[in-house]
Write a structure and sequence with these properties.
five-stranded mixed sheet; elongated; D-Maltodextrin-Binding Protein, domain 2; 4 helices; 135 residues; alpha/beta
Amino acid sequence: MAIAGQSADTLGAIKKSGSIKIAHPVTAPPFSVMQDGEPVGYSIDLCREIVDSIAAHLGMDKISIRWRSASTLEGLRLVADGVVDMDCGITTVTLSRQEHVDFSNEIFVAAGGVLVLSESGIKDLVSLTGLPFRH
C-alpha cells in the first residue's frame, strides 16, 4: 500500500473533512475487487483497519472513505500528486517508486519456484539453460 507522507496538514485535512481519499484497483482478487458497488478484499480490509486507527489517533469516532478506482500506476501517481491520501492496491515496492511515495510494511510476499524430479539432474535455474520448453 502506498501512502502520502502523513504530515500534520494531511491529517488535519482528514480531521476537518471527516473523510479520507483512497485509490484501489477493481480487478485484483483476492486483494481488491468490486462487489455490489463497493471495493472488498484483503487489501481493502487492511485499509479500513488503517482508517480506523487514523480516526482513533485523531480522536474521531469515524472517518468516511471516499474510494477511487485506479490502476497501480495511476494509484501511485494520485498519491504522489496528493489527489488521494492512500492507495489500497497490490504494488511492488521499488526504489524508484519510493522516491515519490511511502509504502506500508509488506502485506503479501510472492515467490516463484521450479519443481523437477530428483533424478532429472537439475540443481538450479542455470541447469535449465538449453533445455527444450514443454507445455
